[in-house]
Write a structure and sequence with these properties.
137 residues, alpha+beta, 4-stranded antiparallel β-sheet, 4 helices, elongated
């Protein structure tokens, strides 16, 4: 069975397709600054999904909120058709979590003792708290 995905961070973004003369597609969403392409429709969809998820990761690293789908709909540009791309906005954040860094922090002594008495893994608790704080809706 695969990893559980936080459904709160799975979003469907509108993207606009322009068919190229070579049969490929250019895909864009101006509101979030995404442009991608593919040699066929399947690759164009895959590449646009990857581009949106990577943009969300960049926003998170910069401490910015990524636009929600309803804030990214509509364009004045000409296009052949529009479709929605389902994206996991935390995908790159999870992929990057393999590299670990050591941090020193100070907490109240009473919390340290209570955590130790329960056998808590302080690194795991801090990681969980940071993810909740940084990746909240």
């Amino acid at each position: 069975m695969g990893k559980k995905v936080n459904m709160e961070r799975v979003k469907a973004y509108p993207v606009y397709f322009i068919k190229n003369s070579s049969g490929g597609y250019t895909v864009f969403n101006n509101a979030i600054g995404m442009v991608s392409e593919g040699k066929d429709l399947e690759e164009a969809i895959s590449m646009s999904k990857d581009a949106i998820e990577l943009l969300a990761y960049d926003f998170l690293l910069d401490g910015e909120d990524f636009p929600l789908p309803e804030d990214s709909y509509g364009t004045d540009e000409k296009y052949d058709f529009v479709n929605y791309i389902v994206c996991d906005l935390n995908r790159y954040f999870r992929l990057d979590s393999k590299n670990k860094v050591k941090k020193n922090c100070t907490i109240p002594e009473s919390l340290a003792r209570a955590g130790e008495s329960k056998g808590l893994n302080f690194s795991k608790v801090l990681t969980y708290a940071l993810e909740k704080e940084l990746i909240k809706e």
